[in-house]
User: Fold this.
Amino acid sequence: MATHKKSVIAFVLLLCVVSVVLAQSAPQRIISLIPSTTEMLFAMGAGPRVIGVGNFDRYPAEALTRPKVGGLIDPDVERIISLKPDLVVVYGTQDDLRTQLERAKIPMFLYQHAGLQDITATIRELGGRVGSAKESAALADRIEAEIADVRKRVAGRPRPRTLLVFGRDAETLRGIYASGAVGFLADMLDAAGGTNVFDDVKRQSIQTTSELAVARAPEVIIEIGVDTASTTGRNLRAWDSLASIPAVRNKRIYQLRGDGMMNPGPRISASVRRMAEVLHPEAFRK
Assistant:
């Protein structure tokens, strides 16, 4: 009996030691240059360990209190190293930055833009890397459940042909950029119950023209991140010159403001729902 008791005590002590070692090995000084991964870190509870963020990181509010260290094309390497991070989250395409961080022997987490399902995969992977596996798994599960709920609500309904615009010159139809058939924006539209008018173009983005928009004849136009509240009306009126487009003729043009619509992070399920609510409002009526 005494031997068994000693074994139990030894096992408990071993678990305590392992827990301490794991806690000590988890990064305590994290820099994230990417808006979406910064959001992920804060959403999984690792925000207090974030000591630096990218120039374009605006959410959550706590991220605005952290030092800015550059972005995709202009990382401030000296500033990054001076903060003495034990993990830096970088774009996989930042070859020069990666080389310099490797020379400084600073660990990295490499991020790649991909599709909708890769967002929650990244949340889980990043959570495991920073010692927040349980919290990140719960976050990813919630996001996936919310997107699944949207898919269920719109299932079996007609899927309107949709032009998804994520950029154009203010108050004009010049410089129109729209989603192609691949990438998280295209996946969001699919989950929300729409058919992409450019579903035959296997690219993430397309620089289109008003003539091409007329030719594709979208039944719905959704614009994200192209205006502010003060310019919504003027931006919408720009489409009036293309009255032959069904979406214009039937007044089915929607502008969904907010940086969350274009950020492949924890707010993505809310963004999918917002898109679905304009495509299929009847599916969300109580």
Summary: The first helix runs from residue 2 to 25. DSSP finds eleven helices and ten strands in the chain. The beta strands are 30-32, 50-53, 87-91, 108-111, 161-167, 176-179, 195-196, 205-208, 220-224, 253-256. The two ends are 62 Å apart (CA to CA).
